[in-house]
Design a protein that fits this description.
By secondary structure, this protein is α/β, with parallel strands linked by helices. The chain has two domains: about 1-30 and about 110-200, Rossmann fold (3-Layer(aba) Sandwich), CATH 3.40.50.300; about 35-105, no CATH class. The protein has helices at about 15-25, 35-40, 50-55, 70-75, 80-100, 120-125, 135-145, 150-160, 165-170, 185-200; strands spanning about 5-10, 30, 110, 130-135, 175.
Length: about 200
Amino acid sequence: MAIRRIGLTGGIGSGKSTVASYWVALGAHLIDTDALARELTRAGGAAIAPLRGEFGVDVFDDAGALDRARMRTLVFNDSTAKRRLEGILHPLIGAEALRLAAQSNSRAIVFDVPLLSESSPWRARCDRIAVVDCSEPVQIERVMLRSGWDGEQVRNVIAQQTPRAVRRAIADAIIDNDSPHTLEELQIAAHALWALWVAQD
């Protein structure tokens, strides 16, 4: 049986990582592109040299790793910074993710891709796209509770992510996780989609 490749996306605070954990428990091989980005941007990571060449030393911490808070501030204040950052990181992330996928013997591979959109190369790399979705007020409330950020900080992050309507438009399935849904309800929905896409093949 061919390995099924599932693209999983959703905005910050949507519950995407929780759905990913449910699928891992069912046997998925999870490839978290945000985790790959952190690995690439740690001190000595493959992205450090090109990032330093593009942005200088001000966006790095004392250890030589990318300072994500400083980069978020730069992206918010410089309309070209996001494009330049993604131009460096996305090809490196994609190559590493595909390398890991090629080594996997799992029944299904789940690519956790926060910035998945119709124009993203990930649309063609995946057999199906699942979107974990909730409203922006729910996102803000959840992230504030778990992170200690204020509402403005959360809204700034949401503004840099793929818009909700764009995510929903590319979905082959939408897992609704709006309030007042419980974790049990989210798990039931995640298991049902797994059964439909993977377990019955």
